[in-house]
Amino acid sequence: MNQPQNPGHVDPILAAGDEPMSNASGNAYFGDILETRLSRRTLLRGSLAAAVAGVMATQLPFGRALAAGPGVEAPSIGFKAIPVGTGDSVVVPEGYRVQAFIPWGTPISGDMPAFSLDASGENQAHQIGSHHDGMHYFAIDGSSRDGLLVLNHEYIEPRFLHAAAAGMPLDRNGFPQHEDGSRDADQVRKELNAHGVSVVRVRQGDDGQWQVVQDRLNRRVTGLTPMQLAGPVAGTEHVVTKYSPDGRMTRGTLNNCAHGVTPWNTYLAAEENWAGYFANEDAEIDRRQSRYGIETRAEGRYQWHRAQGGADEFVRFDATSRGAAPSEDYRNEPHAFGYMVEIDPFDPQSTPIKRTHLGRFAHEGVIFAPAVEGQPVVAYSGDDARFEYIYKFVSARPYEASNADGSLLDEGTLYVARFNDDGSGEWLALAPGQNGLTPENGFAELADILVNTRSAADHVGATKMDRPEWGAVDPATGQVYFTLTNNTRRSEEQVDAANPRAENHFGHIIRWQEDGTHAAERFAWDIFVLAGDTESGRDLAGEPLGQEAIFSSPDGLWIDPDRRVWIQSDISESVMNSGIHEVFGNNQMLVANPETGEIRRFLTGPIGQEITGVITTPDQRTMFVNVQHPGATTSAEAFAAGELVSHWPDGGNAIPRSATLVITREDGGIIGA
Ligand code: FEO
Ligand code: CA
Ligand code: CA
User: Which SUPFAM superfamilies does UniProt cross-reference here (predicted)?
Assistant: First the structure.
């Protein structure tokens, strides 16, 4: 999901480069830094690694060479780029095939209830959820034709979920409710069950078509599934509730955006914009909620706490202190959200586990560095909100393939990134007694630091970023890439080298190389691409982006085994196809070469959606990509009149549904090559 932006401003980068600009912050002006680096790049034949090495030799406090080294090859990118798209369909390059798969409502378990707008809340617990997002393919016995697709369902549009919504003037955030503000309990159940994660076995037939297999591993994890809390926050007073007086359990996961795959082959779902689901009528709200956007209010996003009948599993979305003690109400319920949730897709009976040591924030996703025997496990995660941070977890115990499991994530150190203007960076530990995180400064102990991750990161002086989204690790160089989707609220005074544009409408991608292993406390960074149109965008060589490469608001990101950098865009529904965003058309996916910085458009999606989530089978001959919220740009009036802007994927007069794309090549070749 993207957040609303302020449309209509001209991006300052349009004017940057020739004209000197004033910057009251005292930070180096980005134009200077860019120019310095670009001339280094030119001198050193375009290699970012060499450019950073040049910076390090003269300015940085450590002196490793960053060159990729011999044997590291650039990936082949063999398809012909496609133009931007504006139609209500998916377009892929010549020689490729695409098929829509497992749309919202597809039955996968239980009595396999057929898709229907009339389906009940209980039916939804056996069907694919809505708003597909992060996704992984877990091969069964190494197969590229038989595996488990595991995917997140970030949120819902209630108007497209309920037959009863037809004819109502509902926009993309609207929902049916009674005059007194209460809600139908089965609609609420359906909405909670349409969130979460799907685990579904899929198999490719001899005809090349992928099908759902009815299988004992098929499973829905939803907003109602019992979950365990693990790590330092588990069992503390922060998470004591009426449901779990010992603070070790909670129910459900929400707003699962991107994901991660652990070195021990389990799945992690990220809890991103969970705060909005809660009401809290307390006059005073402490930082455990206020720093995450919960303020005094009677309303939650979908008013779930107002479900008729007052069932406990719905009432808990009211975080007001109503009882005599925390064990008698749900004042602490929001403290059980904001984590990475571990799910073992191969054990359908397993209880999902919220791993609290990875921090509590609006987790976009998590990306693991390749695990090395005998070394700590390292994972990176971004906090997707304006001016929030990028984090790294380093395990205390070393990775040993023979016995590695999720408990490795329960002990270690959480760090937050500071990007210095000279191209160096450091990881600041969020640990008791370190970097001023002491009781005197308001951080009692580790659980307190983790529940208040954002406040702790503020305290240590981390760098405020332009909405960190997905990360990816280059398998050959170990360089870590992160998308920074946009931040129109950054002022000229707030510009720094890592977030170089004020009113950043289009976003950018940053990357860094750790100083040694991924557990290092220092790194060197640079900017891979400044997204934008042909005037404002800049590639790795500092050249304007061509028509085949323009994009805005990078979000999903994946680097395949051959090092192709797959970039997915999420221009907000509030600005897509209009104003300065019109030139980008519908949201799309592109491929970049990490060595040359060349970018080519690979796919464009239907109307009103975002493209998010990408993975291939191990042989790279089938790619899965998600299309989320087609038709979201339908206005309330148009919805009431039955005039939807998208009918994808079913066509005709059908309501639009999020779905997964299956992409193959006509010649059976490797996707993207
Ligand atoms: Fe759910 Fe940050 O996109
Ligand atoms: Ca997004
Ligand atoms: Ca996203």
Answer: Calcium-dependent phosphotriesterase
Q: Is residue 228 part of a domain?
A: yes
**Where does residue 231 fall: left (phi above 0), alpha (psi -120 to 50 degrees), or beta otherwise?**
left
**Cα–Cα distances in angstroms (integers) from residue 179 to residues 272, 331, 411, in the given order:** 31, 27, 49
Say if residues 509 and 558 touch (Cβ distance below 8 Å). Answer: no
- Is the pLDDT assigned to residue 258 strictly greater than 50? yes
Number of domains in the chain: 1
Q: Are 403 and 394 in contact, with CB atoms under 8 Å apart?
A: no
d(CA 65, CA 134): 34
Ligand 1 contacts CB of residue 157 (under 6 A): no
Residue nearest (by alpha carbon) to ligand 1 atom 3:
1
Q: Are 96 and 161 in contact (CB under 8 A)?
A: no
Residue 154: CB within 6 Å of ligand 1?
A: yes
Question: What is the distance in A from the centroid of ligand 3 to the CA of 293?
Answer: 18
385 pocket-lining for ligand 1 (C-beta < 6 Å): no
What is the distance between the alpha carbons of residues 109 and 107, in angstroms, rounded to a whole number? 6
Q: Is 286 part of a structural domain of the chain?
A: yes
Q: Is residue 673 part of a domain?
A: no
**For residue 150, with 0-12 CB atoms within 10 Å meaning exposed, 13-18 middle and 19 or more buried, which class applies?**
buried
Cα–Cα distances in Å, from 125 out to 192, 194, 195, 220, 331?
A: 9, 7, 10, 6, 27
pTM: 0.92
Query: Is-contact 383 361, C-beta < 8 A?
Result: yes
The residue ranking higher by pLDDT, 16 or 580, is 580
Structural element, H or E, at residue 472: strand 468-473
Using left for φ > 0, alpha for ψ between -120 and 50, and beta otherwise, residue 301 falls in: alpha
Range of the domain at 371: 2-571+581-604+611-665
Helix (H, G, I), strand (E, B) or coil at 232: coil
How many CB atoms within 10 Å of residue 58? 8
pLDDT of res. 37: 46
Ligand 1 pocket residue status of 469, Cβ below 6 Å: yes
* pLDDT score recorded for residue 68: 57
Distance CA 668, CA 272 (A): 37
CB-CB neighbours of 83 under 10 Å: 11
Size of the chain in residues: 673
**85 found inside a domain:** yes
The CATH number of whichever domain residue 493 belongs to comes to 2.120.10.30
Strands (E), 196-302: 196-204, 210-213, 219-221, 226-230, 249-251, 256-261, 267-271
